[in-house]
Design brief:
Helices cover 42% and strands 17% of the residues. With 453 residues, the chain is α+β, with helices and mostly antiparallel strands. The chain has a six-stranded mixed β-sheet, sandwiched between helices. The chain has a five-stranded mixed β-sheet with strand order 7-11-8-10-9, sandwiched between helices. Helix 9 (281-291) crosses helix 12 (367-385), helix 10 (307-313) runs antiparallel to helix 11 (346-359) and helix 12 (367-385) packs antiparallel against helix 14 (408-416).
């Protein structure tokens, strides 16, 4: 009669043979060695940058230095129109054809804009990269605006504006930039309501021809070999041309109040920050985390490590948020704080936070707080780098602005060099500058800027 179970000897022998087979397989297994960000400038003027992270999904982006700050005064909001027009027909493919082919490979094609860049990006599995690249090229370099498609896009623009007008947080960001810079960086990411549908084919063509040119473009990739991306870059039909002249951003300072029916007030007070190439950009980033940003633990009150949150909590018993903010651009920046509080307590909360921020200019920051903030800054950077989508926009924008990309190890090394003296010096220099204030909501109890500082 056969045994009900396998003998111990046969089990051991089987495991031994399996282990040997696994060991042989491991010898031939591909070893993924860590890669640094690589940069190549093509003769056409296009800068190519990539990071091979061995992800099964490849992400490629075309980045132009053509954000809202580049809009001429007679074409405010035209980058909003171009963002909406990204899903329209191109010279070599219809809108339906692009959508169908991207869906067939399970990919994603998108367009986003910031104050300084417009980014066309595609993500797909590596083995479908040829199709993804083909349609990214169509969308980013093969514009062929058709009157009926441009006219239909006005509906989407109105929807975007409706969403924007129902988002006080977004309105606050736009308002504080407008009050601080007026034009250039003060120009909104959203078109004025009276410009919806105002831009036709000739307007869009004119902006594209002057800004979507090789010397004003970068091709970025994450999850792709650099040599492969350089080879593929030669297939893109970038228009020849030099980088258009850019008006330098000038910080003015001021106040902008948007009174609305709401139980809350969203307010921000900032001063002039620094540009991306400034030696003070990392000390300022550390100072932001010394003052405190949003909570890292869900539903946490964040009072343990945030000075501004602790100050706001002392002035109200109602829900609130408080965070230091830091915005860095190619030639300017903003630094300060923003709060959201019950309209009845907005004045008390703002005064409490202003007093706390003012104390930071009087050498009250300790070395222990600086060391903790430096660790936080490095962790934030490394965690952001874990997202391929975030890393793609990061390296694309950085290489377009600076012509190079700094690795994480170099970033960590530079952060480690920041000292308590640097923080105290930067705090006095920045926080004592001319202030700007923006506020959105029921402002009946919200003080004006000259009543706070």
């Amino acid at each position: 009669m056969k045994s009900f179970g396998r003998s111990v000897a046969s089990v051991i022998q089987g495991r031994s043979l399996a282990a040997q087979a696994a060991a042989k397989q491991a010898e031939h297994r591909f070893k993924a060695t860590p890669q640094d960000v690589k940069v190549t400038k093509l003769p056409s003027g296009v800068v190519v940058t990539s990071l091979e992270n061995y992800s099964p999904v490849s992400r490629i982006a075309v980045v132009y230095g053509a954000g809202s700050r580049h809009e001429p005064a007679n074409a405010l909001g035209i980058t909003h129109s171009l963002r909406v027009a990204a899903n329209q027909s191109s010279k070599k493919a219809t809108a339906f054809g692009i959508a169908k082919n991207i869906q067939q490979i399970g990919g994603s094609l998108s367009c986003s804009t910031s104050r300084e860049q417009v980014i066309y990006s595609v993500s797909c599995l590596r083995n479908n990269l040829a199709t993804g690249i083909e349609h990214l090229n169509n969308v980013a370099t093969g514009h062929d605006f058709k009157p009926w498609e441009v006219q239909d896009a006005a509906k989407v623009q109105r929807q975007d504006l409706e969403l924007y007008l129902h988002s006080p947080e977004a309105q606050l960001i736009e308002a504080v930039h407008k009050a601080a810079f007026r034009d250039t960086l003060g120009q909104s990411l959203y078109m004025p309501t009276d410009r919806v549908g105002a831009y036709g084919v000739h307007d869009l063509d004119a902006f594209v021809k002057s800004h979507y040119v090789a010397h004003n473009a970068a091709l970025a990739g994450v999850g792709i070999d650099h040599d492969v991306l350089v080879h593929l870059a030669k297939k893109f039909t970038f228009a020849p041309g030099q980088t258009p002249e850019q008006k330098k951003a000038k910080y003015h300072g001021g106040e902008l109040r948007l009174d609305q029916r709401s139980r809350l007030v969203h307010a921000a007070i900032v001063t002039e920050g620094v540009a991306v190439d400034s030696a003070d950009v990392l000390p300022l980033g550390v100072l932001q985390l010394v003052l405190g940003t949003g909570p890292y633990v869900k539903y946490s009150n964040n009072l343990a490590s945030s000075k501004v949150a602790k100050a706001a909590a002392s002035a109200t018993t109602h829900p609130f948020t408080a965070s230091a903010i830091c915005a860095v651009y190619s030639d300017a920046g903003l630094f300060g704080f923003q709060v959201t509080a019950d309209a009845r307590d907005a004045g008390k909360v703002l005064k409490a936070v202003v007093n706390t921020v003012t104390q930071a200019t009087k050498n009250t920051i300790t070395d222990a707080e600086v060391q903790r903030a430096k660790h936080k800054l490095k962790v934030c950077c490394h965690m952001d780098a874990e997202s391929s989508a975030e890393r793609l926009e990061w390296i694309g924008a950085e290489v377009l602005l600076a012509g190079q990309v700094y690795g994480l190890e170099q970033f960590d090394s530079e952060v480690d060099k920041v000292t308590l003296e640097d923080i105290n010096r930067v705090a006095k220099k920045i926080l004592n500058g001319k202030p700007t204030m923006a506020a959105v909501g029921d402002l009946s109890s919200t003080p004006y800027l000259d009543e706070l500082v």
